[in-house]
Amino acid sequence: MMNMNNMMKQAQKLQKQMEAKQAELAAATFTGKSAQNLVVAEFTGDKKLVAINFEQAVVDPEDLETLQDMTAQAVNDALSQIDTATQKTMGAFAGKLPF
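Now predict its structure.
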């Protein structure tokens, strides 16, 4: 059985590795797109909106509903990518815990 001192050292090492991976994720850029790429939303890995771009074709004052739907689609796409990357990156640490 591993002694307590070694367990604490291993846990601290894993914590530093996890913090580094979290920082990498936060610095990464994720781009979500609507159908036909008419709306593009760009987020950082810590879920902060950096930019949102609209193609001229989707900007119609008579049809705001389509613009709203495509904006939500692009935002949700980017957030889903962040969640997947976070799960993949941080989930890898679950099996490495010393206890």
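The two ends are 11 Å apart (CA to CA).
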